[in-house]
Write a structure and sequence with these properties.
The two termini are about 20 Å apart. The N terminus is likely disordered. Helix content is about 25%, strand content about 35%. It is built from 4 helices and 6 strands, in the order E-E-E-H-E-H-H-H-E-E. By secondary structure, the chain is α+β, with helices and mostly antiparallel strands. Helix 3 runs antiparallel to helix 4. The protein is elongated, with a radius of gyration of 18 Å. The chain has a single domain, classed as GTP Cyclohydrolase I, domain 2 (2-Layer Sandwich). The strands form 2 sheets. Strands 3-4-5-6 form a 4-stranded antiparallel beta sheet, covered by helices on one side. Strands 1-2 form a two-stranded antiparallel ribbon.
Length: about 130
């Protein structure tokens, strides 16, 4: 932790934030506004960024001292492949809420992308949500 300024003139404190990033996870799910979208599986891409203090893991090289990526990937997979919803906002929110329950996760950003047939030729429609522990 470093401070900018000295004594009474201190203006800010900078802390390091460690991140784990899981990119390009692709799962199939039946989500969308229309019955047609929910009738057939579509591909959803999920990117997750986790904020945590990883100093202990950097020193120990032990899985117990970090966040197990497999657990977070399983959360995303279960949400996308699970109950059908109308909005990708709902999917991102569910993933974020569950990821925050994982020990050591201080904050999470979740991006869920889909390529709706009705909007082609765009590469994708995406939602990004960031949530933090209170």
């Amino acid at each position: 932790m470093a401070s900018i300024g000295a004594g009474a003139n201190r203006i800010a404190t900078i802390t390091s934030v460690d991140r784990i990033v899981l990119e390009g996870m692709v799962f199939s799910g039946k989500h969308g506004l229309t019955d047609a979208e929910r009738a057939r599986s579509q591909r959803f891409t999920v990117d997750i960024e986790l904020e945590a203090d990883l100093a202990r893991a950097a020193r120990s090289d032990q899985i117990e001292d970090t966040i197990d990526y497999r657990r977070v990937r399983t959360i995303a997979k279960e949400v996308i492949e699970g109950e059908s919803v109308h909005l990708i906002e709902t999917l991102a929110g569910r993933i974020a809420r569950k990821a925050l329950q994982v020990p050591r996760v201080a904050a999470v950003s979740v991006k869920v992308t889909k390529r709706p047939p009705s909007m082609r030729p765009i590469d994708g429609a995406a939602v990004v949500m960031r949530r933090a522990r209170r």
